[in-house]
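Troubleshooting log. The previous run stalled partway through. Resubmitting the same two chains, unchanged.
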Amino acid sequence: MEKVPFVKLSFAGSRFNGARLPADASVNISIYQKVLVELAKQIWREKNPNRLRLPRNFERYFQLQIGDIEEGSAVAHLPRFEEDLPELFGSMAPGDIFDKAQDELVNIIDAANDNKPLPRLSPAVRYELRQLRKNLRSSENIVVTRGRLSRDVDRHPISAATRERITREIREEKIKNISGFGVLSGVSETPPSISVVSEHGAIRIDVNFQTARLTYNGQNGRLVDFNINAVVDYDGFIKRTEGVNAFSLVKDDNSMAKAASRVSELAGLEAGWYNGEGEEISQLTVITSKDIARFISAFEGSAGIFPSVEGEIQIEYARNDFEWTIAIKDTHVIVEVMSLDDDESVVRRFRGCSPGLLRMLLSDNGIVDE
Amino acid sequence: MSDNQDELFLRNIHPHFYDNGRVGSGGFAPTDEHEYCLSVDFASMSSPPESRKRHETVFGLESAAVFGVTEAEFDEHSIECKADPIDLNPAHALADYNEVRLASRSQVKKVARKIAAKANKRGRLD
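Second attempt completed without errors. Output:
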């Protein structure tokens, strides 16, 4: 194993004089490592879109250790240890990923200090970033210096203001124009409004009574095409609708109509439908399945819809070298995305036709940031 | 087990497990009722149309399509294929999932998905 100089964290403040590093402040070293690990995961996933799982023991390759504490203010030297690496890592070695993660973290700190927009960050990275500077007083800072560089030429301070700017940016709401498809999930007459589930979140639109009654009543589960202005959070999830530019029910095309009719056909199966085995399919299963089948058939014309002996409805199709199976029973929905090349798979559970489910169905490989 | 890993086995698919040109994983998931064995025919002894015709007319069972999986593809999941000639069907064989069943019932379903994916890739044979 080779020891490689990686980063120096300088703790600035009177408490740290004489190379003292109080235990409550030193927790930031492990938080710093956690931020790097989460950034490394984000980088690895971007570089390996066909892989569903992180390599085994991924985090083991991203361990920092405290080398020594330098005199002056407390400067923690944190080398990392390189070891032989499994081929599992793909095209980038952990060392390279770790270096890239470090550079990205420095970019984030600099962007926050310069009041510039932050790069796109996964929820896990954001969570760990918000923890940095834990137990530090407002006058105390951590200064990051990379590798063998001197603190005079490579200084990236994390001050109280840096953290505040990161937190503010992450929490900031924006008005965004959003267009796409969703599923009509409810019609209310008091007050008259309709609800739609989309991958961006739930949408509520006020309509007049006549429209609610005559146009949308009885149309739950139908696909809708929308263009709205909405207040969204950092992740782009809708907080509330500000204005509607366009909104219409999508006429069932051939594959949508076929999917809905196939579900209706399976609804008629009686107990024992498969050589004496096979449970009946509940009405709730049929309703949930119709919404989901119609949505899937809008972008995946080759999906097959099948009953299971356990009384589920299963929607199956192949996309992007993965085999997708959506198993529905009552309002329970299980999505499994399986790689055909190896044993990797992603499984997620949902209740009904939810924004999270639609996000997963529209993703390339079933992996979505949550 | 035959020595020929390229040997293709034919599976008649129940109409409920055939939709939109695809076989569903249920078509390759044996149940407790059948002691976790799947009925298949040796393709070297029976063509897909022959297999289907026999299934429907001789045994009076429903078949919406015939799909095929090789011995190697079954073998990859520890599914042993063994000859099981029966009256009026000397080509009959059994794909035995009991080894998979030992892991769990959900593993049987998972393997059935992989086998069905292979069969779908090869396409409908009749």
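Takeaways: Chain B touches chain A through 21 residues (CB under 8 Å). The beta strands of chain B are 8-13, 18-19, 22-23, 37-42, 65-70, 80-83, 92-96.
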